[in-house]
């Protein structure tokens, strides 16, 4: 069950994404599943290692280290933020700007689990999660990551293709977002309604160049320019 906590992010392409941070209960369940799977992997390696002798013991100890520390790193980087436990629970790890987690961030957040564990049973990590609205443990805060639900919570609309036209003057980021949002939703509006809304930004929807489109069509062309679409 999702708590009523969201994080709204605007990408460099001016796409708005809504993320739902996961609380400590689903994250704890995912961690429990991954712990069981790690133990099973260690057991599978321990059985043949018993018959190799001293070298088998060394191999087993190295395997324990690699599985314990790099199991989550491998799955988060290769499988887009999802360990098997997170996948089963419906969670994934992202950078806190909404982009896929990278290798360095995954290493930092997972290697700092020892700090979350102190003084006992991940007490520091639990306190950190309960004292910030995005339920981030210490490793997440330092690495700049966030664990979210994988349910489709992002609202993505397509900007209709048009010849990109730069605005006549610099625009604030809020104005840029407004223009892109208008263009995305214009496909569901009637032509009169499009022109009515475009008239709210007369300084942008009109031009002194007769060869250029005006009104809603001009705003859509500006939106194409803002998202980086090429002619």
TrEMBL record:
Superkingdom: Bacteria
Record key words, sorted: Membrane, Transmembrane, Transmembrane helix
PANTHER family tied to this protein: SLR0254 PROTEIN
The RDD domain, residue ranges: 22-144
Organism of origin: Limnobaculum eriocheiris
Name this polypeptide is given: RDD family protein
Annotated transmembrane regions: 28-51, 57-79, 111-130
One cellular-component annotation, GO: membrane
Keyword Transmembrane: yes
Membrane topology: Multi-pass membrane protein
Localization (cell): Membrane
């Amino acid at each position: 069950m999702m708590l009523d906590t969201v994080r709204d992010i605007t990408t460099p392409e001016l796409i708005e994404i809504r993320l739902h941070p996961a609380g400590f209960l689903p994250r704890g369940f995912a961690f429990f599943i991954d712990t069981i799977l790690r133990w099973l992997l260690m057991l599978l390696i321990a059985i043949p290692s018993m018959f190799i002798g001293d070298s088998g013991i060394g191999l087993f100890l190295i395997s324990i280290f690699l599985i314990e520390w790099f199991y989550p790193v491998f799955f988060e980087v290769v499988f887009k933020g999802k360990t098997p436990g997170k996948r089963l629970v419906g969670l994934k790890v992202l950078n806190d700007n909404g982009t896929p987690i990278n290798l360095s961030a995954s290493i930092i957040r997972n290697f700092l689990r020892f700090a979350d564990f102190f003084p006992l049973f991940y007490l520091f990590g639990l306190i950190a999660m309960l004292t910030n609205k995005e339920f981030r443990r210490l490793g997440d805060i330092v690495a700049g990551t966030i664990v979210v639900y994988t349910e489709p919570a992002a609202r993505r609309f397509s900007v209709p293709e048009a010849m990109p036209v730069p605005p006549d003057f610099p625009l604030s980021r809020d104005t840029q977002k407004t223009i892109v949002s208008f263009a995305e939703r214009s496909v569901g509006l009637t032509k009169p309604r499009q022109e009515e809304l475009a008239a709210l930004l007369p300084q942008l929807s009109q031009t002194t160049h007769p060869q250029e489109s005006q009104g809603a069509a001009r705003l859509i062309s500006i939106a194409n320019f803002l998202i980086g679409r090429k002619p």
